[in-house]
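Example 3.2
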Amino acid sequence: MTSLRHAPPAAETDTGGGPGLNRPQNGGSRPTDRSLLHPRRRLYHYAFALPSICLVLVFFVVPFVANAFFAFVQWTGYSSTLTWTGLSNFELLDQVGLLKHAITVTAVYAVTAMAVQNAVGLALATALQRTSRVNTVFRSLFFVPVLISPLAAGYIWAAVLDEHGPVNAFLSAVLPGDFHYAWLGHDTSALLLVASIDAWKLSGLITLVYIAGLNRIPEQVLQAATLDGAGAWRRFWSVKLPLLAPAVTFNVTVSLVGAFSALDVVFSTTAGGPGDATTLLNVAVYTQYGQSFFGTASALSFVVTLMVIVTAVPLMSWLRRREVQM
């Protein structure tokens, strides 16, 4: 009689690729499908990704590298030679006061537009969260500005805010005296109003994102807060707002980056005026290119890119750390 103590293990006696070799050794988990790692299959993956990679390279990477190069080159439409000058373009822009002023105006504009967009969007989302026929109609109405061309929106608001426009006519009708205030003709009011117009243009999209975030909050959490005695404001501040962190991250980042790259709304309302009160970096880029100063225009455009990267990356990282998992 053969002793069981000397019997070889089943995995060692099976040499024909039978069930002994194929039996999982990790408690029954499926073996790795090595066919997914086959070179031909990987080649198919790269082939499908190639069009997207080419688009990114052609329309994003190559222009960024070229713009970064031309930012340090003396290049104008009045000379056929390109000369490497280092930081001279930035020094020239700083000497004439354009660089610092444009950065400051762009920062104020971006923060104002971002704050107005998110405040209005969150307020509308809270009011229109419930799904009903009336709320559906209002959601559609508030989304209409997103579909309007930025240039058209700017021209419309420029007419509305004109010295003899509907806003002053309405104020003259309801208040004593005649109002002929040039809303877009004063430095502070022009910058804040143009930023608010940009915010109005995209508030509908921000609202929809916040509505989606509010609808993801479990009803049981809100009911538990109500049973604990939390009122409407306490539920919003202590429950809804923390759970809206992913939507806040998306909306704040998108609105801020979009405001940094604003041009069309400003161009169609004030064209950078009055004076240079609304001369954003992109408006300055447009002006420099129009005057055939391509090197300084590239330098300003490079500053826009740096501002977006330096602002958006740390901001997104900080907001992501504050997100609450549901």
